[in-house]
Specification:
Number of strands: 8
Distance between the termini: 43 Å
Strand order of the largest sheet: 3-4-2-5-6-7-1-8
Number of domains: 2
Structural class: alpha+beta
Shape: globular
Oligomer: single chain
Length: about 220
Amino acid sequence: MPVSDDSGFPAPLSSVEHARWIAETIAPGTGIIRNYVPTDLDGVARVLHRAGHDYDLTWKRISAASGETLSSDTQFDDIRQSLGEEPPAEVGSLDPVSQERLTEILTEWRATQASVFFGWWTGSAKVGRLPGVHGAPAYRGPRECVLFESEFDKLAHLATEVGVTPYHWFDASKSWLVVTELDFDSTLVAGPSDLIDAITSDTVLEAFETSYSADLRSHRP
């Protein structure tokens, strides 16, 4: 895991072989969950991005104020009318509170403490300015990403450096995948049923189990 600069940010990997399985296991197309996560894993959890200045506003709290019923396919636009002047849930980046808790759950659940791979979208201006990114190989899944490898406990630092959470998180086991699609107000986690259960039953994360056929675009056709 070569380090590219004094900030401790790793240099992009010179090979994207570890990420090729993603493109091979997602369905072609865009907008439907199966277009973003491997369809050969047990299930998918949808982690809702928190709102508010301090990321203290859950969708449940906001939906209760708006009179809307919260479900696995609710979009933030469906409930935001009661938000007032508070910042909405961010699209395309997992909030720090949920990111920290999801990292803890995955760390506890994983059998090994080996390094983790992070894929960042090449279209991000901040990613493009990272040392070593220009000319580095990229992979698609479905967005074009540059691949990095680091310890899991450095995710918060790396995300702060880039300004957004990674598009992908996964490890060499290929048994789970985290995806934060740029156009979604939530993050998807695909994996074994016990991992999905741990995420959806957690008291910090606000998450639903969803289906591979769900459409999470804000403006559905």
